[in-house]
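Class, carefully examine what follows:
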Amino acid sequence: MTQTVRVPAETLDLPVRQPALISILRLAALQCRTAPRASVTGCALLDPAATAADHAAALALCLPQMLLRRPVVHRPGTRRRSFDEDWLVALARALASGDRASARFLARRRARPEAVPYLALLLGGLTERLYD
């Protein structure tokens, strides 16, 4: 008699699809770690031709200064999401759906008060370019 052994999917080294927001943010964060420090020009992000990669780079660069604690953004290909990545996905969904109360609650729990409008602008611009 042959016995079948089932291996949980979590233990397999299969690629896990992350939301596009997390994938592009992870790539941008990785590039920001290896690139020389540069300032982000806000006017460039207001240009309708600004890409999702532009917004992701600006968000990855500015996120540590916007949040109350240093964010955890995993490397591309990591199976799990950090609390900060889950929080960004939830905030992006709230902003995209127009749920202002949830967006305000989520933003104020983790971001510096003066950074909330800029966070919403960057994350909203990124989400808009990714999903439209």
Residues 116-131 form the longest helix (16 residues).
